[in-house]
């Protein structure tokens, strides 16, 4: 399996970022995914979020102030076994390219 989690972000000011994560990989593997269950840091309201939009590569968009590890359970179609992925969210200040606080 070649699926990974990718991300982007935009600094909104005042130690706050808008960011997104999504699945990246070959189309045939993405087509075999039914949905993704993302688990965010416990400080988020509703930290467990399910995304079933294949057109966006199962993109989750939200915002926050710090970095943490994101967990994703990739649920396949047709009783395929779940995949478990992890991604360390990387946010940086635009002026200095310094990392965001943990």
Structure description:
This protein has 102 residues and is mainly beta. It has a single domain, classed as Sandwich (Immunoglobulin-like), CATH 2.60.40.1970. It has 1 helix and 7 strands, in the order E-E-H-E-E-E-E-E. A hairpin with a 6-residue loop joins strand 6 and strand 7. The radius of gyration is 14 Å and the shape is elongated. The N and C termini lie far apart (30 Å). The model has no long low-confidence stretch (mean pLDDT 94).
Quickly name the level 1 CATH class: Mainly Beta
* Residues in helix, %: under 10%
**Any idea what the radius of gyration is?**
14 Å
Strand order of the largest sheet: 4-3-6-7
The coarse overall form would be elongated
């Amino acid at each position: 399996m070649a699926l990974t989690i990718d991300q982007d972000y935009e600094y909104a000011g005042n130690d706050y970022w808008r960011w997104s994560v999504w699945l990246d990989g070959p189309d045939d593997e993405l087509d075999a995914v039914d949905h993704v269950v993302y688990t965010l840091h416990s400080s988020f309201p509703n930290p467990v979020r399910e995304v079933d939009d294949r057109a966006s590569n199962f993109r989750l968009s939200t915002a926050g102030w710090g970095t943490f590890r994101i967990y994703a359970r990739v649920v396949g179609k047709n009783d395929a076994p779940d995949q478990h992925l992890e991604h360390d969210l990387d946010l940086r200040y635009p002026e200095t390219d310094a990392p965001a606080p943990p």
